[in-house]
Amino acid sequence: MYEREVLLMKKIFTNVLLVGFLVFISAILYGHSVQASDSFTYASANGWWSTPSGYDVNNVGSRMVSGDFNGDGKADVATFYDYGNGASRIHVFTSTGSSFDYSSNGWWSTPSGYTASRIAAVVAGDFNGDGKDDIAAIYDYGGGQTRIHVFISTGKSFSYTDSNGWWSTPSGYTASRITGALAGDFNGDGKDDIATMYDYGNSETRIHVFTSTGSSFNYSGPSGWWSSTGYDSNRVKGRIVAGDFNGDGKTDIAAMYDYGNTASRIHVFTSTGSSFNYSGPNGWWSTPSGYDANKVTGRLVAGDFNGDKKADIAAMYDYGNTASRIHVFTSTGSSFSYTNSNGWWGVSSGYDANRVTGRVVAGDFNGDGSADIAAFYDYGNTASRIHVFTSNAVPTPNKGAQLVAYARTFIGVPYVWGGTDPSGFDCSGLVMYCYAHFGVNLPHYTGDQVKYGTVVTNLQPGDLLFFGSTSDPYHVAIYSGNGYMIEAPKTGETVHETPIRSYSIAKRIFN
């Protein structure tokens, strides 16, 4: 009896080893070792918000965006709802981190005079650089007359004070020729801009950029930041996204191009700050067959899904018969890695991707540092739910936050004029010492330190605040977040953390 049990145990052990070996080999053969972090959690079909009736997503169409509208560090969702006869509202679904709060009154509304169906595109971004995301609508007046209306966030409502818009033209700009509109900080000045991919016909395409001044848009002109006579923008319509794909601090553009017969490529247009460099027709990712770009139209989004500080691309792919998967193309900085056709999430049945087309957005809805996905699902008969797919990626630690934590360890150190070490710091000495700890060598003089980094208006922890002249400031401090800064103030005092004062310029050292 004992020998039979031993033989049985040996057989079971051998089979377990064999199965494990096959799993290991298959992972190698398919080039992907599946990690728990490479996935989305879809907690419940009930979603983060739902209603059994009364919210017709068909009245939203594709006028859905995401952004941090209340400035709390978590992304929210906004929709431009058409009530008919010129009545419109902007509804905002503010994130609590695990659900959305919704007020039917909206953050902006009008009983008449604003026809939402005339909006060619809606985008969200921090256009005035105050740290809260705003909404811009490209409004088609017909006959080539177009305006860009901006709705500025107050944190709890939108202020719309100028129907002339931040940019307008009485003729010559046909909004219906826009195949994609995007928001992002394309020139890297800390304020979000707008880019449009414009179809001139016969495969002539240009990317126009409207750079923000904080209160208006400057139009780069019809030549655009990029142009081509051999690029059919209709082959990327519904599949154009914006994000910082190379991690240089400026927003880029990516487009999934349909070559027909399931051949697809992702083209990238990287920003130089004043133009776009086109990666070429081979793109950052390509396949000669097997990936039908039409199966993701209206469901392609960009965000930092793996938390490495570079934007990636996610596509909700419709396999038919309610089978769906979310594929992720992670950025390496110069290409996209697509290693798992099973996707970061998928079901063989029960999720009809067509019911969210045009209403899929990305943002960090739970505030954990990695981008998530939200999809507004149409259940029919005005029943709707917002489903959220949260990323399980563990974000790469933020250097700015790490620097702030390091600077806090010196709170209480006495101010010493010319001091550059923990026995005593002056203002620029504290900055120099803290940044050196993270491999960044700055000079010991505020007038020289201000020459480094990128000018920003949307402050992030680790940014430097300069006081006095913008060219030769007399003082510098480290922004620590939530309206506070860390500084070595003056003789007789110690390093401390204090509310920020009026400063002349802010610079970002870490991109």
From TrEMBL:
<feature type="domain" description="NlpC/P60">
    <location>
        <begin position="397"/>
        <end position="511"/>
    </location>
</feature>
<keyword id="KW-0812">Transmembrane</keyword>
<dbReference type="InterPro" id="IPR038765">
    <property type="entry name" value="Papain-like_cys_pep_sf"/>
</dbReference>
<keyword id="KW-0732">Signal</keyword>
<dbReference type="InterPro" id="IPR013517">
    <property type="entry name" value="FG-GAP"/>
</dbReference>
<dbReference type="Pfam" id="PF13517">
    <property type="entry name" value="FG-GAP_3"/>
</dbReference>
<dbReference type="GO" id="GO:0008234">
    <property type="term" value="F:cysteine-type peptidase activity"/>
</dbReference>
<comment type="similarity">
    <text>Belongs to the peptidase C40 family.</text>
</comment>
<protein>
    <submittedName>
        <fullName>Putative alpha-amylase</fullName>
    </submittedName>
</protein>
<keyword id="KW-0645">Protease</keyword>
<keyword id="KW-1133">Transmembrane helix</keyword>
<keyword id="KW-0472">Membrane</keyword>
<dbReference type="InterPro" id="IPR051794">
    <property type="entry name" value="PG_Endopeptidase_C40"/>
</dbReference>
<dbReference type="InterPro" id="IPR028994">
    <property type="entry name" value="Integrin_alpha_N"/>
</dbReference>
<feature type="transmembrane region" description="Helical">
    <location>
        <begin position="12"/>
        <end position="31"/>
    </location>
</feature>
<dbReference type="Pfam" id="PF00877">
    <property type="entry name" value="NLPC_P60"/>
</dbReference>
<dbReference type="GO" id="GO:0006508">
    <property type="term" value="P:proteolysis"/>
</dbReference>
<keyword id="KW-0378">Hydrolase</keyword>
<dbReference type="InterPro" id="IPR000064">
    <property type="entry name" value="NLP_P60_dom"/>
</dbReference>
<keyword id="KW-0788">Thiol protease</keyword>
